[in-house]
Write a structure and sequence with these properties.
Blueprint (H helix, E strand, L loop, with lengths): L1 H13 L10 E9 L3 H16 L5 E9 L4 H12 L4 E6 L12 H9 L4 E3 L16 E3 L7 H11 L4 E7 L2 H22 L8 H7 L3 E8 L5 H9 L5 E5 L2 H13 L8 E4 L7 H5 L5 E5 L5 H22 L19 H10 L2 E4 L2 E5 L5 E2 L3 E7 L4 E8 L4 E3 L23 E6 L7 E4 L20 E6 L8 E7 L1 H13 L2 E6 L8 E3 L6 E3 L1 H7 L5 E7 L2 H4 L2 E3 L4 E10 L16 H24 L4 H4 L11 H13 L11 H31 L12 H4 L7 E2 L5 H8 L4 H8 L6 H9 L5 E5 H10 L3 E18 L5 H13 L2 H10 L5 H5 L6 H53 L4 H7 L11
Helix pairs in contact: 2-11, 3-4, 5-6, 16-18, 16-19, 18-19, 21-22
């Protein structure tokens, strides 16, 4: 230990001599250059860097070699000439006039094995961004795939929202595709939640996200003619090509034969696609890119050396540096400081490089690269710079006019509007009716109630409302079909209509219980390319508007509630409803009490018939029966023929009773009219805030349609979460099923679009809508994002509103009502209302018949008793005559024939 301390002290003393300290550490920097002449450039760059960096800590030394003819020789040279000299980093370019950009691979593999950083100078293949293969590789140039950033900005600059991406089916092509698609997705995510409702059309177009309509991959075996024919059938006319020089030349040649290089088309390419053979076949008006200073190897050598020197200085200030490996033979140990040195290199920033600002991303690729935007013009026969990409945005040169394909000077719109559209719709009356075709495959002629011929179109779809049914031709007609026919005539397009396969409007659902969501229904078919346009009663809402474009609403509406109409059922005792049972009991009791009082007053009055003339017959007096008849007669206003009270006191009571009867009868008549004629039953639901809806229970079931806009609305409203949980268990597959359930009393209330429910209530008189509208919205025509038809369709709909066409459609399909005439006509009594009265009469008849039989039976019984008594008296007389043979004179004197005379034996 003492010896080591002495040696350390000696070293420190040596370091304190002249020159201010120890000799700086020698740091070897290797380079594999394309030509001998760049070796001197490399040495000068190292010498220049030594004056700026390191000072007394390190001094760089340049060791360089040139490329070897094959990979094995190159790897051996790296080991023998560079790694054996303990290099800290290796700079590598690629051979001149060579398309083999993979020549740095042996250098990257060999140095990467020992974790020695490798700085690429001119290599732009995307494979070097894969850090699982090229562990220690970084570069001062961007890969070709980064040209996607410039393409994306050019699309936004020129407001092209429809593109076709044609890429070679190799690593470079797929990398460019992935890069561009990532940019498109990121842009779409940023714009999703922004509000652009108040933008004019120009600004609206600018904010829209470009989208690849189709990605076409090709290889050496691909039939390019067939591939380009597929592209020709698409709407997009902006073609982005990523391919090698030879592949690009073949694509240009095939495109020219198909007339795809003329007016209306736009070709955006990268650097490879406009060099050498590719440029000789390039179409006039081509827009391409060229990396500024991309082939300036001297500038990249100087910048790379400066970045390495700057990183070494940072490394020496903070860390203890271990020695790099010496040679490859028998050495399998990695350089422990190598990964750290690579991280320092990748985090370095060099703003004043000869090639511009130098920074690296996580893959070690150059950031903020600058490009020239070149326009190929055949007349001068050269590439003309019309703009630049400054590392963050495109800046066009207004002084340089772009010549577009076909010699055009006006910017192409970038798409062609296909005149044959695929329309998807859904069965929803009265907007879309679906009926089977006739045997010959045509639609049956029908007329509206106004005598207008119904316009029908053939639509293919499931045979029935259940998904999975066979697809057959059917007849579609209704509000939306008339609107479609009108739009087709106005905008000059043809169409083919089909019904949505799953019978749903469209909502997002999870895929296989994952976090990924996909649209189903009409939304899914539109986004999946199975349809170009949705013409159906599709509600406009924010969730859908994030993914598709909506036209201006063709019908404004809201949500309402459908319930079954509470029709009052008349019972047999309905005529007794005006009075309560207690009142009826009191009236009946009063009749009899008054009758008894009339009888008593007339009986005991000195002026009654019993007292005035005792010689008059008893029948002329007011008997109890007559009093009863009088009392009922006054009450029922049947008229009094006889048997009226005679005494003044009884007559006073009779007049009071007559007044009482008048009031009772008048009150009864008025209330009877109210009950049987004027009464309208109150609806069961008052609206969305009805307690039965807000406080759900199993006794009152309400629902909507699964995966519909209404379902989405209740799901997203926090204050309606209780209602949604109740509805979720009872929702139906379609509106038709739910409406039928209401009619069958299986569902108490159905919440749906007001236009549909009001129509159903007008056609089915046992249904009624109730409550005020809520969640007001509209029906719109759906199109894919950035559809070229969006503006034209909206203008056509606005024009239809102005000229009254929409009003006519409303009258024909929605406002036609069958139940209004019944509900607005004066209410009249029916047999059901008065059945009880007729039953009362029938009961009176039956009672009369029953009583007459009793009276007849009683009379017969009484007559029989009387006859028996007469026979008995006759028999007694005969018996008496036989038992007492008295003389006739004696018998006559005794008057035995008189039964009142008793005979003693």
């Amino acid at each position: 230990m003492e010896l080591r301390g002495v040696l350390l002290l000696t070293v420190l003393q040596c370091c304190s001599v002249a020159r201010g300290g120890c000799e700086p550490r020698l740091v070897n920097i290797g380079a594999v250059l394309s030509q001998k002449r760049y070796e001197q450039v490399f040495k000068e760059a190292v010498s220049q860097a030594n004056t700026l960096y390191g000072k007394d800590k390190f001094k760089m030394n340049a060791i360089s070699v040139t490329h070897k003819p094959n990979a094995i020789q190159m790897a051996l040279s790296v080991c023998e000439d560079l790694i054996s000299n303990q290099v800290y980093a290796i700079l590598v370019s690629h051979p001149p006039q060579s398309n083999d950009h993979l020549t740095p691979t042996p250098v990257s593999y060999t140095a990467g094995f020992y974790r020695i950083p490798v700085v690429g100078l001119t290599t732009r293949m995307s494979i070097y961004s894969d850090k699982s293969i090229h562990l220690s590789f970084l570069r001062t140039v961007p890969p070709y795939s980064h040209q996607a950033h410039v393409w994306f900005d050019l699309m936004r600059e020129f407001r092209w929202n429809h593109i076709i991406l044609i890429v070679s089916d190799d690593h470079e092509g797929r990398a460019a595709q992935k890069r561009l698609e990532t940019l498109l997705e990121e842009r779409e995510t940023k714009t999703k939640n922004r509000n652009y409702d108040n933008l004019d059309q120009q600004n609206f177009d600018f904010r829209r996200t470009p989208k690849a309509e189709k990605v076409l991959l090709f290889s050496q075996d691909t039939n390019l003619t067939a591939l380009l024919l597929e592209a020709k059938d698409l709407e997009a006319r902006v073609i982005i090509l990523s391919a090698s020089e030879d592949e690009a030349a073949a694509v240009y040649k095939a495109a020219r034969q198909l007339n795809m290089t003329g007016s209306g088309y736009v070709w955006l390419v990268g650097e490879r696609e406009m060099t050498g053979k590719a440029l000789s076949e390039a179409p006039d008006g081509l827009l391409g890119l060229q990396l500024i200073n991309g082939k300036n190897e001297s500038a990249h050598i100087a910048d790379a050396v400066a970045v390495v020197a700057q990183s070494l200085q940072e490394l020496f200030e903070k860390e203890n540096i271990t020695e790099p490996p010496r040679g490859c033979v028998g050495n399998t140990n990695i350089w422990r400081t190598g990964p750290l040195f690579k991280r320092v290199l990748m985090s370095s920033k060099y703003p004043d490089g000869l090639t511009g600002r130098i920074e690296f991303n996580d893959d070690g690729d150059r950031r903020f690269a600058t490009y020239s935007i070149l326009n190929y013009q055949q007349k001068p026969g050269r590439l003309v710079q019309v703009g630049v990409f400054n590392g963050s945005q495109v800046v066009m040169n207004p002084q340089r006019k772009i010549i577009w394909p076909g010699g055009e000077t006006e910017k192409p719109v970038g798409y062609q509007m296909s005149t044959r559209l695929k329309i998807v719709t859904i069965h929803q009356e009265p907007f879309v009716y679906v009926k089977p075709t006739k045997a010959d495959g045509t639609c049956k002629e029908e007329y509206t109630v106004n005598g207008i011929l119904i316009k029908k179109v053939i639509c293919t779809g499931p045979n029935g409302t259940i998904p999975g049914q066979p697809i057959v031709p059917q007849c579609c007609y209704g509000f939306c079909i008339d609107l479609l026919i009108k739009l087709a005539m106005s905008l000059n397009f043809t169409y083919e209509v089909h019904l949505v396969a799953d019978g749903k409007f469209g909502t997002q659902e999870r895929v296989n219980n994952s976090n990924k969501k996909e649209w189903n229904g009409m939304m899914g078919e539109l986004l999946g390319g199975l349809a170009d346009m949705i013409v159906a009663p599709l509600t406009i809402n924010n969730e859908r508007a994030q993914y598709i474009e909506f036209s201006k609403p063709f019908k404004y509406q809201g949500l309402t509630i459908l319930v079954k109409k509470e029709i009052p059922r008349s019972t047999l005792d309905s005529f007794m409803q005006p009075f309560q049972s207690t009142l009826w009991l009191l009236v009946g009791l009063s009749v009899h009490v008054v009758a008894v009082m009339l009888y008593l007053l007339d009986r005991f009055s000195p002026f009654g018939r019993f007292k005035v003339n005792s010689e008059e017959e008893e029948e002329d007096a007011l008997t109890l029966s007559s009093a009863m008849w009088f009392s009922w007669g006054v009450l029922l206003n049947s008229g009094i023929g006889e048997g009226a009270p005679r005494s003044f006191s009884a007559r006073i009571l009779g007049m009071v009773w007559a007044g009482f009867a008048m009031i009772i009868v008048a009150s009864y008549t008025a209330n009877l009219a109210a009950f049987l004629v004027l009464d309208r039953p109150e609806e069961r639901i008052t609206g969305i805030n009805d307690p039965r809806l807000r406080n759900p229970s199993d006794k009152f079931i309400y629902a909507t349609v699964k995966q519909s806009s209404v379902d989405i609305y209740f799901r997203r409203q926090v204050e309606l979460s209780t209602m949604y949980r109740h509805m979720e268990k009872h929702n139906y597959e379609s509106a038709a099923e739910a409406i039928q359930a209401v009619r069958d009393n299986k569902l108490h209330a159905f919440i749906w679009d007001s236009a549909v429910l009001e129509f159903e209530a007008s056609q089915k008189c046992d249904l009624v809508t109730t409550g005020e509208l809520f969640f007001r919205s509209g029906f719109g025509i759906g199109m894919r994002k950035d559809s070229p038809w969006k503006q034209n369709v909206s203008l056509a709909i606005l024009s239809s509103h102005e000229n009254g066409f929409m009003e006519d459609l409303d009258k024909t399909w929605v406002r036609y009502q069958e139940c209004d005439s019944r509900s607005n006509a004066p209410a009249t009594l029916t047999f059901e209302n008065m059945a009880g009265v007729f039953m009362l009469v029938a009961g009176g008849i039956v009672a009369g018949i029953f009583l007459i039989f009793i009276e007849i039976a009683y009379k017969r019984h009484k007559d029989a008793r009387r006859k028996q008594m007469q026979l008995a008296f006759a028999a007694v007389n005969v018996w008496r005559k036989n038992l007492q043979p008295y003389p006739t004179d004696l018998t006559g004197q005794l008057n035995l024939s008189d039964p009142s005379v008793s005979t003693v034996v």
